[in-house]
């Protein structure tokens, strides 16, 4: 398993969430998602994240990509979501808003996670 934190050079939560959801085959986390209206969902998440910004913060999101060496048929979407939930809980406790999206558009399965601080 490889875990990469993707630096956010410019804060743009809406575009990040759109990108994550458009590639998703399954989603999880504790943020309500309406896959029928990804644009509105992304806007709502951005409003929520931005409402928590302090005057010193440019962004309050963290974006991770977790990739696996297993083949697609060797790990299920449910297993990927379970691993994602466990990683978020271990590293950030239960007090973060987060989204996990399973992606299968590369050679090996992965999930991406976005968190609000």
Description:
The structure is a single chain. With 117 residues, the chain is of the alpha+beta class. The protein has one domain (25-51, 60-116). The chain is 33% helix and 27% strand. It contains three helices and five strands. It has a five-stranded antiparallel β-sheet, sandwiched between helices. Strand 4 and strand 5 form a beta hairpin. The longest helix has 16 residues, at 77-92. It starts with a strand and ends with a strand. The model has no long low-confidence stretch (mean pLDDT 82).
The domain tally reads: 1
**What oligomerization state is this entry in?**
single chain
Q: Name the helicity range.
A: 25-40%
First and last CA, distance: 24 Å
Percent strand: 25-35%
Gross morphology: globular
Question: Which features characterize this protein?
Answer:
5 strands, 5-stranded antiparallel sheet, 3 helices, alpha+beta, 117 residues, single chain
Can you give me a brief rundown of this structure?
The chain is of the alpha+beta class. It is built from 3 helices and 5 strands.
């Amino acid at each position: 398993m490889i875990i990469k934190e993707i630096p956010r050079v410019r804060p743009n939560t809406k575009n990040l969430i759109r990108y994550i959801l458009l590639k998703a085959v399954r989603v999880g986390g504790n943020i309500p998602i309406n896959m029928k209206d990804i644009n509105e969902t992304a806007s709502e998440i951005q409003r929520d994240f931005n409402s928590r910004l302090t005057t010193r913060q440019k962004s309050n999101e963290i974006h991770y990509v977790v990739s696996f060496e297993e083949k697609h048929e060797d790990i299920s979407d449910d297993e990927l979501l379970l691993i994602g939930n466990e990683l978020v809980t271990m590293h950030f406790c239960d007090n973060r808003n987060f989204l996990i999206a399973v992606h299968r558009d590369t050679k090996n399965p992965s999930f991406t996670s976005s968190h609000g601080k």
